Amino acid sequence: MDLFLNILLLGAGFLALIKGADFFVDGSSALAKNFKVPGVVIGLTIVAMGTSAPELAVSTSAAIKGANEIALSNVTGSNIFNLLGVLGICAMIRPLPIEPVIMKRDFPLSIVISLLTLGAVGLPSLLNGKITSAAMSDNVGQISRIFSIILMVIFITYIALLIRSARRSPQPEESGEITPLWKCAVLILIGLVCIIAGGQFVVNSAKAIASAFGMSETLIGLTIVAIGTSLPELVTSVVASRKGENGLAVGNVVGSNIFNLLFILGVSGTIHPIAVNFASVTDLAVLVAVSFITMIFARTKNIGRTEGGIMVLIYAADVVFAVLR
Predict the structure, then answer these.
(1) CA spacing 20 to 30 A to 132: which of 11, 31, 221, 301?
(2) What pLDDT digit, counting tens, does each position of 184-238 carry?
C-alpha cells in the first residue's frame, strides 16, 4: 500500500513540476516583455533564484543545525548536474543556442567563482600537506565566514550590474498583447509553488521507493536527492527550450550555478563556517573541469545533440565515480 501511494505521489510530483514550469516560464517571459528586459536577464535572476529555492532551503536548514558540510556537496553536486544534465538533456532534445553575452560575462564568472572556491579550500590544504595524506572523509579545511561574506558581496555586485545592463539595453517594443503585471506575478508565484512542491514530492517518494527496493543510502543521496533538488532547473529549462525561450533556458542554468555558489554558499558559510572534506575538494575540481568542458562545447554558440549526449555520459561517469570512491 505504501509503495503504491509513493508511486502515485511520484506521478503527482512530476505533473506538478511540468505544469509549474509551464506557468513559471510563461510568467517570466511575459514579465521580460513588460519591462523590455532580455529573456536571458530574467533567466539569470528571477528564474535562476526561483528554481534554486530547494538548494537554498536544504543548505540554510543544514547550516542552522550546524551540519552544513551538506551545503557544499549540495551546491557542487547541483552545479555539476545543471551543466551536464540540464544543458545536456536540453541540447539532446533541441540544439541549444548560447547567447554571446553569457559566453562573455556569465559563464566566465561562474568558472572564476568555482576556481576561487576551490583555491580558498584546496590551496592552503595542499600547502599544509593535508590533501596528500587525506582519506575521502577527512576534513582538510573550511569555508570561513569572511570568505562567505566576500561571496555574498560579489553576488550583490553581480545582480546590480545585471540590472544596470538591462536598463541600458532595453528590448524593442514587441507586437501583441502585453500581459498585466499582476497576472505575470500570479503565474510566477503559482509556477514556483508547484515546482518546489513537485520537487519535494518527487524526491521524498523516490527515496521511499528506492529504499523499498534495497538501494543504499549513498546511492540514493548521490542520484535521487542530488538530481531531485535540481529538478526545477531541469524541467524549467526543458520547457523554456521547447517554447523557444533559449535565453531563459541557458540563463536559468548559468544563473542558478552563480546563485548557488555566491548566495547559498555565502549564506550557509556566514551562519556557520563550512567544514570541507577531501571528497568535497575533489568534487569542486570536477566542477571546474566540467565548467571548462561545457564552455568549450558552447564556443560554437550552439550546443548540439552530439555534445549534449557526451555531457550526459560524462555526468553518468561522474555519478559512477562518486559511488565507487
Answers:
(1) 221
(2) 889 989 988 887 787 777 767 777 777 777 765 445 555 666 677 677 778 778 8
Tell me the pLDDT band of 148, cut-offs 50, 70 and 90: very high
Q: What are the grid coordinates assigned to 7, written together?
A: 508511486
Grid-cell match 529573456, residue found: 39
Angle at 269 between CA 268 and CA 273, to 5 degrees: 130
Alpha helices per DSSP H over 67-106: 69-81, 87-93, 100-101
**pLDDT score of 122:** 67
Greatest mean pLDDT range, 42-46, 99-103, 180-184, 287-291? 287-291
Query: What's residue 323's pLDDT?
Result: 74
What's the grid cell of residue 108? 566566465
Say how many C-beta atoms besides its own lie within 10 A of residue 223's C-beta.
16
- CB-CB contact of 121 with 281 (8 Å): yes
The pTM for the full model equals 0.76
* Apex 47 CA angle, 251 and 175, nearest 5: 80
Least Cα distance to 165 among 42, 264, 52, 77 occurs for: 42
Rg (CA), the chain: 19
Residues with Cβ < 8 Å from 179, sequence gap 6 or more?
27, 30, 31, 33, 34, 187
